[in-house]
Amino acid sequence: MFRVALYGMAEENTSLNVWPEIEKAEKENRRELVLQGSAVDQKIQGCGGIHPRLYSLALLNYLEISQCPSLHEINESIKDLSHLQSLILCRNKLTSVPRTIGDLKTIKVLDLSVNQLQVLPEEICGLSELNTLNVSCNSITALPEGLSRCVKLASINVSKNALSRLPEDLWSSKLELLSSIIASENVIEDLSSEVHNLSALKVLDLSSNKLQELPSELADCSKLKEINFKGNKLKDKRLEKMVNGCQTKSVLDYLRAGGRGKGKGKQQEGEAGEKVDAGRNASKKKSAGKKKGKGEVEEVDELNRMVVRVLHLSEAPTAVTVKVSPGVKDVRPYIVCCIVKGMNLRQGNALKRFLVAQTKLHDEICAKRTTATIATHDLGLVKAPLLYDVRPPHTMSIVPLGRKEIKAADLLKQLQQEADEQRKQKKRQNVSGLHKYLQLLDGKDLYPCLVDAEDHVISFPPITNSDKTKIKKTTRELFLEVTSSTSLQICKDVMDTLITKMAELNKLTIEQKEDVGSDEEADAIPSCPAEDPPSSELTVLQVKVVDVDGNLKVVYPSKTDLISDNTNLTVIR
Question: What's the CATH superfamily of 142-271?
Answer without folding.
Answer: Ribonuclease Inhibitor (3.80.10.10)
